[in-house]
Design brief:
By secondary structure, this protein is α/β, with parallel strands linked by helices. The protein has helices at 22-35, 53-68, 80-87, 91-95, 108-142, 149-159, 164-189, 195-233, 236-242, 247-285, 290-300, 303-329, 334-367, and strands at 2-3, 8-17, 40-51, 73-76. The protein starts with a strand and ends with a helix.
Length: 368
Amino acid sequence: MTSGNGGEFTFAISGRIALDNLSVVLSEIHGILERLTPSKLSIDLSGLEYLDSAGALALVQLENATKEKSIPFAFVNMTEKTRGIMDLLDRDALMKTPLMEKRGVASIIEQVGEETARFFNDFVQLVTFLGELLSALTYSLLHPRQVRWDEVLFHMKRAGVDGLPIVGFINFLLGFVIGIMAAVHLVQSAFGIYLGSMVAIAMVKEFGPIMTAIVVAGRTGSAFAATIGTMAVNEEINALMTMGFDPIKFLAVPRILAVILVVPLLTLYADFLGVLGGLIVGVIDLDLAPYVYFKQIQHDLTVYDVAVSVVKTAVFAVIIAGVGCQRGFQVKGGAEGVGTTTTSAAVTAIFLVIVVDAIIAEAARFLY
């Protein structure tokens, strides 16, 4: 450092200013400036051997900070190489005020308001998409030759056949657990003969459709969101629109039809395995004959119960596939956006399935 007349100071920097030693250099310069109050400050860069972009940004920030204190500032003896690196920075952009001001911590009321507005906005988008989807489905059913049936069969295999093991295993264990819990009370009341009815009604009316829908939402709904979301990130959907294809009819309709056809069959399969799980408990713990077990089910389980279960699962199928496709079309932000949307598709579908199940259960109670 050298000083001139009238409190004019010149810093001579030599060596290198890079990211690895930036904090040391800046702390030394700011320490000197805090002890001195120059009327003019100059930075001599003639001895500077190496400067990277981080060092250049630090020098510009030092210049701006000095000028804010109304101290004249200048770089002197700058080499062409150093000038070229310094010119890479857009100084005007560094001085501009950000378009979005940094916000402090929002209050609870603000957070609740923002989340409520986001929820209703998301709900409106979902309902709008489901309306477009139902319109596309109606058109496709009226023009079946325009449906990509090979894609429908492909997704039926992925959603149905590939899901048989996990759906069957979960519902078998669920029926087994229901049977154990029911057997404890039925033995005490000497009504063990009704075990089959309890397991069958519980599985057919509620647990079978719900558990199947949850598994399909986790497997198939999230897979739809991930696949379509990846296409959106890669701009393949824009390419389809450019070629004149409707993305909903081309991508969503085959997936919706596949899930609508598969989920009711999966549910009946799940109900049957759940009943078998209860049968094992009845045979082992209650010494029930299989004939008595199934005869009681035949007596208490009505065709209406099975019909309501099948219709309910078809509605669940539309919700699961529709939410998965809608979330996929919304993806933005690359791989991170795909991951976030995939999780959102599964969670939203499961939530809506449970809400719709409660509505259908209440409606069925009045119609029964």
